[in-house]
Specification:
By secondary structure, this protein is α+β, with helices and mostly antiparallel strands. Helices cover 43% and strands 22% of the residues. It has one domain.
């Protein structure tokens, strides 16, 4: 069942004036819920739910990428710093320099 939305605009209290309205916006991209291409005109207020869903998906993807990057950095750092403690600089080991003791 395809629902049709009304033409009434609550911002001006009359029917939508379409391209004469500054909020009438062209959106081109992919629908985040169906994956279909979007190339359509509509009110910016009616586009907000779709754009919020898209924004939430992108935030989750960014969070996952940051977490993956962090895990890779930690994995590489663990491999680099474990043998460093055996090196000496002017008769002090690295661990002594970090701890501040002789």
């Amino acid at each position: 069942m395809q629902l049709e939305h009304g033409k009434f605009c609550p911002l001006i209290n009359k029917d939508c004036i379409g391209l004469q309205c500054a909020w009438f916006t062209h959106i081109r991209g992919m629908d985040p819920q169906t994956g279909r291409d979007i190339d359509d005109w509509g009110c910016a207020v009616t586009w907000m739910p779709t754009l919020l869903i898209e924004n939430s998906q992108k935030q989750r993807e960014t969070g996952a990428a940051v977490e993956s990057f962090r895990n890779e950095v930690v994995k590489r750092a663990d491999g680099q710093f474990s043998p460093v403690a055996s090196y000496t600089i002017k008769d002090k080991t690295i661990s002594n320099i970090i701890e501040g003791s002789d």
